[in-house]
Design a protein that fits this description.
The complex is a heteropentamer, with 2 copies of chain A (319 residues), 2 copies of chain B (268 residues) and 1 copy of chain C (311 residues).
Chain A lengths: L2 H5 L6 H17 L6 H26 L7 H19 L3 H24 L5 H20 L9 H4 L4 E4 L2 E4 H19 L1 H11 L1 H6 L4 H27 L10 H11 L11 H21 L3 H26 L1
Antiparallel strand pairs in A: 1-2
Chain B lengths: L10 E12 L2 E12 L3 E6 L5 H8 L7 E6 L2 E3 L4 H6 L2 E4 L11 H5 L9 H5 L6 H14 L16 H15 L3 E5 L7 H16 L4 E4 L3 H7 L2 E6 L2 E6 L6 H9 L15
Parallel strand pairs in B: 3-8, 3-9, 6-7, 7-8
Antiparallel strand pairs in B: 1-2, 1-4, 4-5, 9-10
Chain C lengths: L3 E6 L5 H17 L2 E6 L6 H13 L4 E4 L8 H9 L3 E6 L10 E4 L2 H16 L6 E5 L5 H14 L20 E4 L4 H14 L5 E4 L2 H13 L7 E6 L2 H8 L5 E4 L2 H18 L5 E4 L3 E4 L11 H7 L5
Parallel strand pairs in C: 1-2, 1-3, 3-4, 4-5, 5-11, 6-7, 6-8, 8-9, 9-10
Antiparallel strand pairs in C: 10-12
Helix pairs in contact in C: 1-9, 4-5, 6-7, 8-10
The chains are: A mainly alpha (319), B alpha/beta (268), C alpha/beta (311).
Bound molecules: adenosine-5'-triphosphate (ATP) (2 copies) and magnesium ion (MG) (2 copies).
One adenosine-5'-triphosphate sits at the interface of chains E and B.
Keywords (chains A, D): Cell membrane, Membrane, Transmembrane, Transmembrane helix
Protein name (chains A, D): Inner-membrane translocator
Organism (chains A, D): Hydrogenophaga taeniospiralis CCUG 15921
């Protein structure tokens, strides 16, 4: 009965990756500034925050859920950690822990409402999106927190390999992708996440506590949002209460572009990274080409569709 | 080899007056049930007689509206399949609870993955894919199913192959009781016989088996006792050695009442 | 090579910023410069602006013109750009501190609010004002500055220019609603406010589209005659509404001028290496159909000629 | 295997309706101005545009799709119809037809990409969202079109019943809900929409052309967005290029609050109307209570969750 | 009553050299197929032998990679189930293509709803729910299935009841050929016999039936000819009147080769 799902070819990251390569090839012919390590390093910096959020989003989408609150939770986390540092003079590690604790707590609330109250994730996270936004505004008084200690922005520093600057934050993001990929692939809890998304009832009947799996996923996603908070603070050097307003759609886009099914149970987290990079490459490449901003939006619309089309075609070819 | 079970064998599962309603439909209407140690108990009945509903209650998959369940004489309260599984009850569901996009090996071990030895396995819960694969091949070979690759997604299997996955899983992990809801329905002659063989082997390990089937020859070949379900109740429990197939079917369909049967036909 | 200049606005679709881009494009064409443009996704999207700035520098821009979405959060990115030899000019909104950029071509939103508040006070002519405000959305500095400036100009207690919190109930405002600067949401806000307090007779709106929405709601309730609507922005459509009696008065600002000045400065920098500096107030003019005693204002014709800096 | 779906009780509009009544009861105790026919008429006016969009969205979600582009398509439609009237002096009926034609065309593009290219609706409509937005901005020069003929705003006029003003547009919206409800319930194509969402493969195997059904749904949704364009023009009396930016989430929220499953095949369109009203009642009621805007957002978040919770509970009770 | 079909009866469906590959798995490996007018053709074979894949090609549900299909001697190109359905071919799929959330009546008539008379029906396509309900009750009564309400969602039915819905649908609407993939697998004794009876009735209306089944007694009871599928090919077509059940099973499982059978056992 799940036949539409059944029709989907086994997901790989190959399709999205081909789309990414094609996009890069295109921009390389359009701007001689595009193809440089420094520029790629820049793109990686730019997708660092949304890329990290998208890891958590991938986990949730794999369970056939969706999280609209991710960006706002991220903003809340960055305000909590910066204000804890600024107002109470807490040391960076303590303040960061509190910030991540706050995002994990929000994840827990999402998870409890999804599992215990059995509410649809869309509505739950729509609710917590608003709640997190309001708390962020109230707590920060809508003021950007600029007193940020060095310890909190350390991830925004970079080291050099040859001519290229590489941000520690980017390395962290890449490491998180790798770890999550291994976790999903090689560990029992990771496989249970797929199972829950694939067929919740079958998973329940095999004696796995689907509630525990879901709860774990939402909390874990919250932790990822918290790490994204930290990366965001590191990147812009401040706690920004207005951050995170479009990150939910951006993150979901990265997940879907990366080949993960919104119906759950199918997808690879590395694809999400590729999806996030596709968006970053578009934005960067179009600016380098000097496309004016309204036209950028137009072209982005077309390119997003072309990207999944390429993905689709490359899969057909592979069959 | 176990000794043949008889009326003195202790009751492993007992249920009294189970009732389960779905809206206006009453699936179970005060059903009783008894499973003795070491026996193969067949459950037969018309479509919609409430067989699946009955075993779902026993397996914790649904919670009955009324009635009591005893496991080894102790009142059992299964709130979820996890509880039943913890008590060592393994079930093959009629709609084959499998995760379609996952591989055969993964489905066989879902929730009971083999872990790597040492830290990796115990703390990080890393699974041992190689070992799981090898085990899967062994289990599936037992059933003589020609499946080419254990890393195939279950959704790509034929109907019968899929059923074999579910059967193999239950047989492999049962500690206490095995429940099978029409395990041979989609199977070919050869594969069906292999499953019967497997059921016998499980029984010989000392585990009682509940077998739901519409296949009368299979039932009469293998069952120690036959529980006849009818209209959400237990109509009778008969002894296949002392009753004919046609009499059994007559009771099952309501053509004959239990009183018309000779006393020895009834099992105790 | 032609000088490359980047313009980063808060959003793509706000007519104010569209006008700004128009001005910049025209000036760039005139002076033979290449203009790159980008915008945040939403008002308040600081990260998007940072990304745009980085990409523009990668594309070779030596001057960045930016209307910062977040006065504080943008500063580290500006510092980074300046380190790479890029001149950064803030347009429309100052950074905090304002000295973080090389130069600021802007208007004072708080002052614009004060002006319109003073006008409103005079226009009410001693009648007891029952005030509704249709603001931008929570946490937005421009929304707060204009709103608080209005309260101040009207003679009510108001937070200072730095605050991002709206002074409200304490100051005696009858109803506050968010309009998102949009006609439809402004209309909804006004309708609900009227329901809350049918006696409302003075409406301040964040910009003219919101004012148009408010007027529509008032008209539907048959109250448009007895209510004074004041606004800030001064777009051509808005000034036309002033002429049509929809809006009593508006504080006009000049995005086109800001942008043109910014582009000129950028070209100058590319040619001579000379940076501009300091704050240039591009001014605020009160445009009103009916002048009121004690408050300076220009008529609609002047407003149309000037609208958003046409000249 | 679709057992999570199978677990859902048959959907009715009763649950959401109870949530609506509870919400109204709450606000009635908080503000004496809330409970009046005039106020309800106002709320109906305010949800008229998003309510009409949400009809189209419901159809798409019933087929297990999602449409992110709905709001932007609506904005495009209103610009096309007003500019056609203003620039070429076309009569209202002609201009309106062209506007609805444009939105239907966008629906067709969405539909073709979903059916022929087999792309996920999320990505397709994310692409067309951007495309429609850019076209709207370019075509209108980001300027509001204020020269609008009376014929185009006629639906914004009202008639009186007793003391209460009722907008023609509201009547139109209610009529559309009724017609769509009957269509989905009583006609063969309507039932096929449910079937496609319920089990696309089974529907295909029974010999229904699922592509045709989907294509029809997307085009029909486009027509609804076009009618929403007209209602938006009538309501604000102008063609607003900045309209429609939040209508996609709002419409999806109305659909989900109304009890339609995001997994397709289950739901009742009248529930969507209730869902839209719930959102409208919150906004109205909170303003009447004088809750300030940040707190409104906070409370909205909590109330949205409470609304589905009420819905959930009332269903449990009914079983 | 129709006359018994024989070797002279015209071929209704013929397929030559069908090949269907799924990745590395070859489901069909050059399979031939012949269905004669007015006959009941049983298709048997081990699990995974390619039976379902074969009939999916005939029903347009999948498109074979190679090979040709002829309908009444004309080359047929089924691009989708719609094409096959237009040609009057009705199919019961093994995984029971039903829409779970829709009612029994709706599923029975899906894609062929009974419309109201006049304008309402022809232009507005309003369906006649009452008539559909009455018809559904009649059809399901034919199968003697005890289903209480036709407005029940199919997902609430027991496994066997669900199968009856699919069978009833195919039998009711077939114009030319009926294909049934294991229609009795989940059925009880009584219901299974009713389906066999139904198949006979369909045949007596003059429509040929393809019946896939693992139930040998059923097959021998009803089939005019038996197509034995093995490893994606047609191993043999045998005549149930001149071959024993055990020989048939032996060929099916590969224990015996076709050459070892007496010539008369083979059907033509
Ligand atoms: N979730 C449900 N909702 C509503 N009715 C149900 C549900 N599950 C089962 N039923 C009804 O309960 C009755 C018994 O169903 P059950 O599945 O137990 O029968 P069964 O004996 O297993 O039949 P079969 O041999 O066909 O599998 C049937 O009439 C069925 O329609
Ligand atoms: N969609 C698919 N993807 C990959 N492999 C498939 C797919 N469908 C079928 N197969 C494979 O093709 C082979 C034949 O399958 P088929 O379903 O035709 O067997 P069958 O004869 O109907 O078996 P059964 O009696 O168990 O129903 C099997 O090995 C199966 O795993
Ligand atoms: Mg059953
Ligand atoms: Mg098969």
């Amino acid at each position: 009965m799940n036949s539409l799902k059944a029709k989907l070819p086994p997901m790989g990251t190959l399709g999205p990756f081909i789309a990414l390569v094609v996009a890069c090839g295109f921009f390389a012919t359009q701007s001689d500034r595009f193809l440089s390590l420094q520029n790629f390093s820049l793109i990686l910096q730019q997708v660092m925050v949304v890329g990290t959020i998208a890891i958590g989003q991938t986990l949730i989408i794999l369970t056939a859920g969706i999280d609209l609150s991710c960006g706002m939770i991220m903003a809340l986390g960055s305000i909590v950690m910066t204000k804890m540092g600024a107002d109470f003079g807490l040391s960076a590690p303590v303040a960061i822990t509190l910030g991540i604790g706050a995002t994990a707590l929000f994840g827990l609330v999402n998870g409890l409402l999804v599992t215990k109250a059995k509410l649809p994730p869309f509505i739950v996270t729509l609710g917590t999106l608003n709640i997190a936004f309001a708390i962020t505004q109230l707590y920060s008084g809508s003021q950007t927190v600029t007193e940020v200690s060095d310890g909190m922005t350390w991830l925004g520093n970079s080291f050099r390999i040859g001519e290229t600057n590489i941000l520690y934050g980017v390395v962290l993001m890449l490491a998180l992708y790798l770890i999550t990929w291994l976790f999903l692939r090689e560990t029992a809890p990771g496989r249970h996440i797929y199972a829950v998304g694939n067929s919740p009832e079958a998973t329940r009947l095999t004696g796995i506590s689907t509630d525990k799996v879901l709860l774990g996923v939402y909390v874990l996603a919250g932790v990822f949002y918290g790490i994204a908070s930290l990366l965001s603070v590191a990147r812009i050097g401040a706690g920004d209460p207005n951050a995170g307003q479009t990150e939910n759609l951006d993150a979901i886009t990265a997940v879907v572009l990366g080949g993960t099914s919104l119906f759950g149970g199918r997808g690879i987290v590395l694809g999400t990274l590729v999806g996030a990079l596709i968006v970053g490459v578009f934005r960067n490449g179009l600016t380098l080409m000097g496309v004016s901003s309204v036209y950028q939006i137009l072209v982005t619309g077309v390119l997003v569709i072309l990207a999944v089309l390429t993905d689709q075609m490359s899969r057909k070819g592979a069959r | 080899m176990s000794t043949a079970p008889n009326a003195q064998s202790p009751l492993v599962i007992q249920a009294k007056g189970l009732v389960k309603r779905y809206g206006q439909v009453t699936a179970l209407d005060g059903a009783d049930f008894e499973l003795r140690a070491g026996e193969i108990l067949a459950v037969i009945g018309d479509n919609g007689a409430g067989k699946s509903s009955l075993i779902k209650c026993l397996a914790g998959a649904t919670i009955p509206d009324e009635g009591e369940i005893y496991l080894d004489g102790q009142r059992a309260h299964f709130k979820s399949p996890i509880d039943a599984r913890r008590a060592g009850i393994e079930t093959v569901y009629q709609d084959l609870a499998v995760a379609p996009a996952m591989t055969i090996a993964e489905n066989l071990f879902l929730g009971r993955e083999i872990r790597r030895p040492g830290f990796l396995g115990s703390v990080l819960q890393v699974i041992d894919k190689k070992k799981m694969l090898a085990e899967s091949i062994a289990r599936m070979n037992d059933l003589k199913v020609g499946i080419r690759s254990m890393t195939q997604a279950v959704e790509t299997l034929s109907g019968g192959q899929r059923q074999c996955v579910a059967v193999a899983r239950a047989a492999a992990f049962a500690q206490h009781v095995v429940i099978m809801d029409e395990p041979t329905a989609a199977l070919g002659v050869k594969e069906g016989n292999m499953v019967l063989e497997l059921i016998r082997r499980v029984r010989d390990k000392g585990l009682p088996v509940i077998l739901i089937s519409h296949n009368m020859p299979h039932v009469f070949e293998i069952a120690d006792r036959i529980h006849i379900a009818r209209l959400g109740k237990r109509a009778a429990v008969v002894d296949p050695k002392h009753i004919s197939m046609s009499d059994t079917v007559a009771v099952m369909t309501g053509a004959k009442s239990v009183d018309e049967l000779p006393a020895q036909a009834l099992a105790h | 090579a032609e000088p490359v200049i980047g313009l980063i606005t808060k959003t793509e679709s706000n007519p104010f910023f569209v006008k700004m881009k128009e001005g910049a494009t025209a000036e760039a064409t005139k002076l033979g410069a290449k203009l790159l443009s980008a915008a945040g996704k939403t008002d308040g999207d600081n990260a998007g602006q940072v990304t745009a700035m980085e990409n523009m520098i990668a594309a070779g821009a030596k001057t960045i013109l930016i209307t910062p979405s977040d006065a504080k959060a943008i500063i580290p990115a500006i510092k980074k750009a300046q380190k790479q030899g890029v001149m950064v000019i803030a347009l429309d909104s100052p950074t905090d501190p304002a000295t973080a950029v090389d130069a600021l071509f802007a208007t004072d939103n708080y002052k614009a609010g004060v002006l319109i508040g003073q006008y409103a006070k005079a226009a009410m002519g001693g009648k007891k004002a029952v005030i509704a405000t249709l603001d931008l959305f929570p946490g937005h500095p421009v929304g707060a500055q204009r709103h608080n400036g209005f309260l101040k100009g009207f003679g009510l207690t108001a937070p200072d220019a730095k605050s991002n919190n709206l002074g409200g109930a304490a100051a005696g405002v009858a109803c506050m609603a968010d309009s998102f600067g949009d006609a439809a949401k402004g209309q909804t806000g006004m309708e609900n406010c009227l329901q809350k307090n049918p006696g409302i007779n003075l409406v301040y709106t964040i910009n003219e589209p919101a004012a148009a929405g408010a007027y529509k709601a008032l008209k539907a309730a048959g109250k448009e005659k007895n209510v004074v609507i004041v606004s800030v922005d001064g777009g051509c459509a808005g000034v036309k509404d002033v002429g049509a009696g929809v809006i009593a008065a508006t504080s006009q600002q000049y995005p086109l001028k800001m942008a043109a000045m910014g582009v000129a400065a950028g070209v100058e920098y590319a040619k001579t290496g000379k940076k501009v500096s300091g704050y240039t107030d591009t001014g605020v003019t009160l445009i009103a159909d009916k002048a009121v005693a004690g408050v300076d204002s220009k008529d609609v014709k002047t407003g149309m000629d000037l609208c958003w800096g046409n000249k």
